[in-house]
Design a protein that fits this description.
heterodimer, A: mainly alpha, B: alpha/beta, Rossmann fold, 6-stranded mixed beta sheet, 10 helices, globular
């Protein structure tokens, strides 16, 4: 559909035109990778867990994907009053198409960020164990991106102004990231954290990425993909539902 | 022929009645204004007319269609320039127009011709490949007018269109709009709280306050009715002189943030 395409294209154009934002958003993953990777590296090695950079990189890739994805979903709050959203809501086209176009666009941008972080990780010393699995890993990145763009859309559709945004970032997105096993192995954890990690959809995404990129994982790859797929579907459906209910 | 028919329109938000049983008609080709203080119900009414909000009670017929039963037909019938800019800042002027054309299913060839014609009309053709974020408030408003007309709607809604614009831009803007009204018979419905604007531009004016229409008529009729000499005095006589207490809402907060980031708003 032309409309989905043009909304997708719009997200891409916006992304490629804000050079400073692209570079800025790569700063954080790079910082985490270098400081934690080389910082905790010796400790990790000593604990018998191997190379921390190898372990960490998929987590950092996941990090850049979810932050970019949630942010593009949240753009809706701003767009609602000052942008573009009003223009699309008043147009004779279905809300579903608009939501699909935006979500696909946002997810594409987040996936591209993930890919760039992968390249940065390689520059920092990360080595995927099997090059043939890279395309599959990219597919997983896309699914993670879709999940979190849809989540961002769902939340943003329910919020009225930017004040909720801070709350969401600190009390939802950060916990989702930190408790997902992106930064530490999920073995021998206290029960509360273990439980939190298990209900966090990102955990399965990162685990799948680890499985494909470094051959190590906590859960079964199939379990990961299954849960990821279901979670993504649920968020896509709720995202479209809440989006369709937006009133200006 | 009446292109807009509103009958006993009401909108309640929980226990607050924003629009209270208003009725009015707008003739095809007319220039009609809604004049009223902030919080009077102007924007809420426009939202109901433009399918953005569902009424609590009452009927609306726009170009013969009901916004509830035939939203898409209604949407094809109007274009709108919102109070706050609804352009995409990170796209060019041309891209913003193109986008609108695709959303309204305007076929490619016609789209290209109309984009050129309209951008020339609002004198933005040579800025077509510039990003909108580089535009001043007046240029953005002109672009929005061009965009709103791309699908050749029968009605153009404008919500406080000249708020924050300098007199030259205001003058230019109304000149294009009056040309269009004369040449193509497009109906123009605008809201404002600038008296001289309503007086100079509108053929008929509805004075709205506290969600009710207090008076409708030509500028002269309103002055006669209130036995005053200027529309401003007529307005004050109809709506009283008390300053309106308003609570800041989320829209105002966002506007404050927008003003902080976009210093050129209002040029």
């Amino acid at each position: 559909m032309k409309i989905i395409y043009i909304l997708w294209l719009r997200q891409l154009k916006r992304y490629s035109r804000s050079k400073s934002r692209i570079i800025g958003s790569l700063g954080q993953p790079l910082l985490f990778l270098i400081s934690l990777g080389y910082g905790f590296g010796p400790v990790f090695q000593k604990a018998g867990q191997g190379n921390y950079i190898q372990f960490l990189a998929p987590g950092i890739i996941g990090m850049s994907i979810i932050f970019t994805a949630i942010f593009s979903g949240m753009e809706i709050i701003w767009d609602r009053q000052f942008g573009f959203l009003k223009e699309t809501l008043v147009a004779p086209t279905s809300r579903l198409n608009i939501m699909i176009g935006r979500t696909l666009g946002g997810a594409t941008v987040a996936s591209i960020q993930g890919l760039i972080v992968l390249l940065i990780s390689v520059a920092a010393g990360f080595r995927p164990v099997n090059i043939m699995l890279l395309p599959v890993a990219f597919m997983v990145m896309i699914v993670i991106a879709l999940l979190f763009t849809a989540l961002g859309t769902a939340i943003a559709s329910l919020l009225d102004d930017m004040q909720g945004f801070q709350l969401i970032m600190n009390f939802l997105v950060m916990p989702l990231f930190f408790l997902s096993g992106a930064l530490f192995p999920l073995k021998g954890l206290p029960m509360a954290i273990d439980l939190a990690a298990k209900i966090d959809p990102l955990t399965y995404g990162i685990d799948a990425l680890r499985s494909l990129l470094i051959g190590y994982s906590n859960f079964n790859l199939m379990t990961d993909l299954g849960i990821l797929a279901i979670a993504t579907l649920v968020f896509l459906l709720s995202g479209s539902y809440f989006f369709s209910k937006i009133q200006i | 022929m009446d292109i807009i028919q509103v009958n006993n329109l009401t909108k309640k938000f929980k226990d607050f009645t924003a629009v209270d049983q208003i009725s009015f008609n707008v003739e095809s080709g007319e220039i009609f204004a809604f004049l009223g203080p902030n919080g009077a119900g102007k924007s809420t009414t426009i939202k109901m007319l433009t399918t953005l909000l569902r009424q609590t009670a009452g009927e609306i017929k726009l170009n013969g269609y009901s916004p509830i039963e035939h939203p898409d037909e209604v949407r094809h019938s109007f274009g709108i320039v919102f109070q706050d800019p609804s352009l995409d800042d990170e796209l060019t002027a041309y891209e913003n127009m193109e986008f609108h054309g695709v959303l309204y299913s305007v076929p490619k060839k016609i789209r290209r011709e109309r984009i050129e014609h309209l951008l020339n009309l609002v004198e933005l053709w040579d800025r077509r490949d510039n990003l909108v974020k580089q535009f001043s408030g007046g240029m953005k408003r002109r672009l929005e007018i061009a965009r709103g007309l791309l699908h050749h709607p029968k009605i153009l809604f404008l919500d406080e269109p000249t708020l924050g614009l300098d007199p030259q831009t205001r003058n230019h803007m109304w000149n294009y709009l009056r040309e269009l009204n004369k040449l193509e018979g497009i109906t123009i419905f605008f809201t404002t709280h600038y008296m001289e604007e309503a007086e100079k531009i509108a053929q008929r004016i509805a004075v709205i306050d506290h969600g009710k229409i207090i008076a409708i008529g030509t500028s002269q009729e309103l002055k006669d009715k209130t036995k005053t000499n200027s529309l401003e005095d007529a307005f004050l006589s109809l709506t009283g002189k008390v300053i309106r207490e308003e609570e800041i809402n989320s829209t105002d907060r966002l506007r404050q943030m927008h003003r902080m980031h976009h210093k050129r708003l209002g040029h």
